[in-house]
Amino acid sequence: MQKNQVLLATRNQGKLKELSDMxxxxxxxxxxxxxxxxxxxxEEDSPTFAGNALKKARYAAEHTGLYAIxxxxxxVVDALGGAPGxxxxxxxxxxxxxxxxxGNDAANMARLLKELDGVPMAERTARFCCAMAAVSPxxxxxxxxxxxxxxxxLAPKGSxxxxxxxxxxxxQSGLHAAELSPEEKNARSHRGKALAALLVQWxxxxxxxx
Length: 210
Ligand code: IMP
Known about the structure:
Blueprint: E1 5-8, H1 13-23, E2 29-32, H2 49-64, E3 67-77, E4 94-96, E5 99-101, H3 105-115, E6 125-135, E7 141-152, E8 168-170, H4 182-188, H5 190-200, H6 202-205
Parallel strand pairs: 1-2, 1-3
Antiparallel strand pairs: 3-6, 4-5, 6-7, 7-8
Helix pairs in contact: 4-5
The structure holds inosinic acid (IMP).
Inosinic acid (IMP) is lined by residues 12, 44, 72-75, 88-89, 108, 128, 161-165, 177, 189, 191.
């Protein structure tokens, strides 16, 4: 195995780009799931971000013999009792005539704004949450978390990022996440914080030949 080779176990292109950018300065050789087309989908059926992140990283490490990193993340909105939460990617999913119609980013945001219709700005507080898991080929595990506080806007703005970024207002700058540059977002995001915490422990976690 090549030294410091890790597999980023995500099919979400937005996440993959963010994580690859953040890992670019580390001495890690990063592989993606496109290098392993034989790997199946992991059902994200845990009620927690941590449970889903661990499930994805365990599956990838077990089936490739590589160190694997996976995250599970989502948006938690106070006025909606924590929804969409672990269902963030599938918030707009619906069944029509017996067929499952998957949601996409635009449909997810539209549902979110509809659910919050009439809720005043002061009550639209929210946070992005990320659990990040690393699993070694010999089954050791690391788990970290990161959070990003803000609120849900009345309308989308900005064209950077992915997912709910156009409707999420960063509490620090007052800007929508989709108005931030990739560097600005990574420096304050839930995923950036969870990955930074993981990398602090990485040197100890990495055991060549394990
Ligand atoms: P999963 O972790 O692949 O289950 O999906 C996470 C979902 O949460 C994404 O598809 C987005 O809808 C949302 N999400 C997670 N992180 C972000 C982010 O940084 N910006 C915007 N949306 C996000």
